[in-house]
Write a structure and sequence with these properties.
Structural class: alpha/beta
Protein name: BTAD domain-containing putative transcriptional regulator
Strand content: 5-15%
Number of helices: 29
Distance between the termini: 38 Å
Keywords: TPR repeat
InterPro entries: AfsR-DnrI-RedD_regulator, BTAD, Sig_transdc_resp-reg_C-effctor, TPR-like_helical_dom_sf, TPR_rpt, WH-like_DNA-bd_sf
Shape: globular
Mean pLDDT: 82
Length: about 650
């Protein structure tokens, strides 16, 4: 049994199935019991807090019903792992000491040591119950607990960052960095987290990044609290690291470049700055080569404009604030990095920064053998381009969302539609279609809007959300036809057209679109994902698996990674590896509750693996969400026209799981 309160409220049974409560109030009663632990909580206090104003008898009755619901949520074979113990006065939760994340979190901090502190940092996925809406009347009950654990997390990140020694303590360093970023995401003025990031950057030799973090900290404190950084924070940056003595040289690029850059582009712009060489001067040629390769790889991403290497290299060898770089070069985003070679090992750290806010949007680290210098260089360039693409898109979506309606352009409307495209439910897709149609009213020849509209219609078809599949199919192909002559240089739009055509059953045309997209942008993770699905629809299990794995390597933090993983599961299922396929689907439904169609796949794959308990559970969950679903509708999908073996296997598995045939 695993219980999670940090971030979202999650409960997973010993058989690895998510446990769901009937109501939010019941879930919160369970959370209150977890927080009280073995010591328990007085029945009267709990009833009065959760059902105020109802009278003692009615409140106690409601509490009794909640406890019945909690017990009902745990199947009989799981009750050995967790029990609700009650008497006339007290209610307590009996469970193993390792069952709840907050119990483990407290114990790891108490033990101390970098290993334990790093493990505690990884457990803090977010503030206590941050992902669950707490009614106003219960705020007073939970607020002290939320504040207490946040304070523990702030103390933890400060303590862990002080204990880091560098020199290969990668696990502790990354755990500390991730915790600091999570804390700053919800509280930009969390000074302990800023200090932790400054220490980490200094350990890595990233002087520019450390200074930028300090500036971010100072800005946040002045904006949020009207105060200056504490002495402990100032002391970090005033140490003899050379930061405070560097003089900022005048910008050579400013006069030449800024005037040539338009004040507002129809697409975001990026500059790859010279990376810091943390090794000997002999490695300068390689460091510059890495930057050139990344610049070239990003230049193939048509979703944004990349500043030429010559302009970027005018900044080499001196500290400059990214906000000034943004103003001088007219760019929205800055890529920075460091390269370190030690013995036969090579380490490259890369980060993407918003030029205006100085906020770090993405970062990663790559390690390899020095003997494979140039192969390593190519691989890093591909992975950086693949990962930065969704990070920039996410930032552009946020920017468009913040703009007032009067300032929206067709580009902004398309950016607003993007999150809905990944919504995985009919309502989200309907909203996306409405927004895309607004964009087309402003610009009827906006090829990307037509292409994404085709993708929306394709989703309505494949997930059986449309009552008239034939009309939806005609409309989808009409949108593809309108986009076709307008998107020859747009990999995202070409991918959307290819994805729609594939779901519409025209795999030859789909392949042509996707291959054109990959010719323009070989590091496009979404294109590789859709190419993988085309492999499924063409009965090519091995090729599909390779394509999905490449997509995940290129963009492991992609918001659409669940689709890559479900595609990999489909490739396993196509190859008869049902146990592995079901394991992937089980994890996806646990992590992404909005991906409802994954229950359908899980039901079939688990049944084909003779795991009938999981199969029946997934089938019941899916029918609760989509009660009019039938296997006959599924086998009639146009995408499955040419893959009879997969279609028949899925149909047999769904029938075995209990999904209706007609």
């Amino acid at each position: 049994m695993r219980i999670g309160l940090l971030g979202d409220l999650t409960v997973v049974s010993p058989s690895d199935e998510p446990v769901k409560f009937t109501t939010r109030k019941t879930a919160l009663v369970f959370a209150a019991l977890v927080l009280s632990g073995r010591r328990g909580v007085r029945r009267a206090l709990l009833a009065d807090a959760f059902w105020p104003g109802r009278g003692e008898a009615q409140a106690r009755n409601s509490l009794r019903q909640a406890l019945v619901d909690i017990r009902r949520a745990f199947p009989a074979d799981n009750r050995a792992a967790i029990e609700i113990e009650t008497d006339l006065e007290t209610i307590s939760l009996a469970a193993g000491s390792g069952e709840a994340d907050i119990w483990v979190f407290d114990r790891l901090i108490e033990r101390g040591g970098i290993g334990n502190l790093a493990a505690a940092a990884e457990l803090y996925r977010g503030d206590l119950l941050a992902e669950i809406s707490i009614p106003e009347e219960l705020e007073q009950w939970f607020r002290p607990h939320v504040s207490s654990y946040r304070q523990k997390a702030l103390q933890l990140v400060d303590r862990l960052s002080r204990d880091l020694k560098g020199g290969g303590d990668t696990a502790g360093e990354l755990a500390c960095e991730r915790l600091a970023e999570r804390l700053l995401a919800s509280e930009p003025a969390a000074e302990e987290a800023h200090r932790a990031m400054i220490r980490i950057y200094q350990l890595r030799g990233q002087a520019n990044a450390a200074m930028r973090q300090y500036l971010l900290c100072r800005e946040a404190l002045q904006r949020e609290l009207g105060v200056e950084p504490e002495a402990a924070t100032r002391a970090l940056i005033e140490k003899p690291t050379g930061l405070q003595t560097q003089e900022k040289a005048p910008s050579v690029a400013a006069a030449k470049t800024h005037a040539a850059v338009p004040p507002e582009r129809e697409q975001p712009s990026v500059v790859v700055m010279p990376f810091d060489n943390l090794s000997s001067e002999e490695d300068d040629y390689f460091v510059d080569g890495v930057v050139e390769e990344i610049t070239a790889a990003l230049s193939r991403v048509r979703d944004f404009f990349v500043i030429a290497r010559q302009s970027a290299f005018t900044y080499k060898g001196r500290f400059i604030d990214v906000r000034e770089v943004g103003a001088e070069l007219g760019v929205s985003y800055v890529v920075e990095g460091t390269v370190r070679r030690g013995g036969d090992r090579l380490r490259i750290s890369v980060q993407l920064v918003d030029a205006e806010s100085r906020k770090q949007l993405w970062s990663d680290r790559y390690e390899g053998a020095s003997a494979d210098l140039f192969e390593f260089q190519d691989r890093i360039a591909a992975q950086v381009a693949g990962a930065i693409h969704p990070a920039v898109r996410h930032a552009e979506i946020e920017s468009a969302t913040r703009k007032p309606p009067a300032n929206l352009r067709a580009y902004d409307l398309v950016m607003r539609a993007f999150p809905k495209l990944w919504g995985q439910n009919a309502a989200a897709i309907a909203e996306a279609m409405k927004t895309l149609q607004e964009a087309l009213q402003l610009d009827p020849k906006y090829g990307r809007a037509h292409a994404l509209l085709a993708w929306c219609h394709a989703l309505n078809i494949t997930y059986l959300w449309s009552p008239d599949q034939a009309a939806e199919l005609r409309t989808m192909f009409a949108a593809i036809d309108r986009a076709s002559g307008l998107v020859e240089d747009d990999p995202t739009a070409l991918t959307a057209c290819g994805a729609a055509a594939g779901l519409g059953g025209d795999q030859q045309r789909a392949s042509a679109f996707i291959e054109s997209a990959l010719a323009l942008d070989p590091n496009n993770a979404w294109a590789w994902t859709r190419y993988g699905w085309i492999g499924i629809y063409q009965d090519q299990a091995t090729e599909a698996q390779e394509r999905f794995e490449r997509a995940m390597r290129l963009s492991p933090l992609d918001p659409f990674v669940f689709n890559m993983r479900m595609g990999l599961g489909a490739a396993y299922a196509l190859a008869g590896r049902f146990s592995e396929a079901a394991a992937i689907a089980r994890d996806v439904v646990a992590r992404h509750t909005n991906v409802t169609w994954a229950y359908r796949q899980l039901a079939a794959w688990a049944a084909m693996n003779d795991d009938m308990k999981t199969a029946h559970w997934a089938a019941e969950r899916f029918l609760a969400i989509q009660p009019d679903y039938t296997i006959a509708k599924y086998v009639a999908l146009p995408s499955l026209r040419d893959v009879s073996r997969f279609r028949e296997t899925m149909a047999a598995g769904m029938k075995k799981a209990g999904l209706p045939e007609n």
